[in-house]
């Protein structure tokens, strides 16, 4: 995970759920007792954080998940001289109840976690990786898909059931694929795909992945790579082909290209 040693903090707000992302290391910062109006969800990546929660104090080390429901009083202090480093999401509860929990628990069901700290090194590392990808994602479809998938996995881990009845899945997949086939180069939003088929975004992702084998975002990337291949066969320059296919930069395209094709764009172009 992150290899920072000096104190730092990066904050980003994304539209979905009025979600806020924080990546930080604190060795001198101390947070007094307070409560959030949102879920505070995260993973400790290094060091030790000391936390007061529900009348007792706890220590969280690397590999600890942080799950604090809205309204819960807590603080945050360095638990060692080195402090702690973590990645956090702050998520609006009404949006989460509607989009992720899909109305199963009602608008007021906010206290879905029993513990503020829980030890799970594998999931904490996965959380940190996904959080880092969300932080830098330029594609709306990629960012929204990562965010919803991460939140769903976190709540399912906590025992929250997210099942939905199956309905018109085959037609929904056909329509989503059709839009992505036509608009592969456009920065398509997850909400647009969900609205197209009348499904919740998270449900739509699951239905699509179950049928196609990959997420809508991965499918879009593969369509873009296929278009780059077509343009390179026609002799177009790599940078121009990358732009025409909808990639934000050539390095991003090159990584995706090699993952799908197995060789670099340059080698593919020059092989003929």
Give a topology summary.
Blueprint (H helix, E strand, L loop, with lengths): L7 E6 L6 E7 L4 E4 L4 E15 L2 E6 L2 E5 L5 E5 L5 E8 L1 H7 L17 E3 L1 H16 L3 H18 L11 H14 L7 H8 L3 H12 L3 H18 L4 H7 L5 H12 L3 H6 L2
Antiparallel strand pairs: 1-2, 2-8, 3-7, 4-5, 4-6, 4-7, 4-8, 6-9
Helix pairs in contact: 2-3, 4-5, 4-6, 4-7, 7-8, 7-9
Explained architecture:
The structure is a single chain. This protein is an alpha+beta fold and 272 residues long. It folds into 2 domains: 150 residues, Jelly Rolls (Sandwich), CATH 2.60.120.280; 109 residues, Arc Repressor Mutant, subunit A. The chain has 10 helices and 9 strands. Strands 1, 2, 3, 4, 5, 6, 7, 8 and 9 form a 9-stranded antiparallel beta sheet that branches. Strand 4 and strand 5 form a beta hairpin. Helix 4 crosses helix 5, helix 4 runs parallel beside helix 7 and helix 7 packs across helix 9. The radius of gyration is 21 Å and the shape is globular.
Structure at a glance:
The chain has 272 residues and is α+β, with helices and mostly antiparallel strands. The protein contains ten helices and nine strands.
The number of helical elements comes to 10
**What is the CATH top level name of the largest domain?**
Mainly Beta
Helix content estimate = 40-55%
Helix-strand category:
alpha+beta
Helices and strands, in order, run as EEEEEEEEHEHHHHHHHHH
User: How far is it from the N-terminal to the C-terminal residue, by CA?
Assistant: 41 Å
Q: So, CATH architecture of the largest domain?
A: Sandwich
Extract low-pLDDT stretches. none
Shape: globular
User: What summary fits the major beta sheet?
Assistant: 9 strands, antiparallel
Number of separate strands: 9
How many structural domains can be distinguished in the coordinates?
A: 2
**CATH domain fold name of the largest domain:** Jelly Rolls
What proportion of the residues form beta strands (DSSP E)? Answer: 15-25%
CATH superfamily of the largest domain: Regulatory protein AraC
Q: Could you tell me the radius of gyration in angstroms?
A: 21 Å
């Amino acid at each position: 995970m992150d290899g920072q040693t000096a104190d730092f903090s990066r904050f980003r707000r994304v539209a979905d759920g009025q979600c806020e992302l924080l990546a930080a290391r604190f060795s001198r910062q101390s947070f007094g007792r307070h409560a959030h109006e949102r879920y505070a969800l995260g993973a400790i990546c290094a060091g030790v954080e000391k936390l007061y929660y529900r009348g007792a104090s706890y220590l969280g080390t690397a590999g600890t998940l942080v799950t604090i429901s809205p309204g819960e009083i807590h603080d945050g202090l360095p638990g060692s001289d080195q402090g702690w480093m973590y990645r956090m999401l702050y998520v609006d509860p009404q949006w989460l109840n509607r989009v992720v929990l899909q109305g199963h628990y009602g608008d007021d069901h906010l206290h879905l976690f029993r513990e503020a700290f829980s030890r799970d090194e594998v999931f904490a590392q996965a959380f940190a990786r996904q959080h880092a990808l969300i932080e830098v994602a330029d594609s709306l479809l990629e960012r929204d898909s990562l965010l919803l998938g991460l939140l769903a996995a976190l709540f399912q881990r906590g025992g929250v059931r997210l099942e939905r009845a199956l309905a018109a899945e085959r037609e929904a997949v056909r329509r989503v694929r059709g839009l992505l086939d036509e608009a592969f180069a456009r920065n398509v939003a997850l909400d647009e795909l969900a609205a197209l088929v009348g499904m919740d975004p998270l449900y739509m992702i699951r239905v699509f992945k179950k049928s196609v084998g990959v997420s809508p975002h991965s499918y879009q990337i593969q369509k873009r790579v296929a278009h780059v291949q077509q343009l390179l066969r026609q002799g177009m320059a790599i940078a121009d082909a990358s732009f025409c296919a909808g990639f934000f930069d050539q390095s991003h395209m090159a990584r995706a290209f090699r993952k799908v094709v197995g060789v670099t764009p340059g080698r593919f172009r020059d092989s003929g």
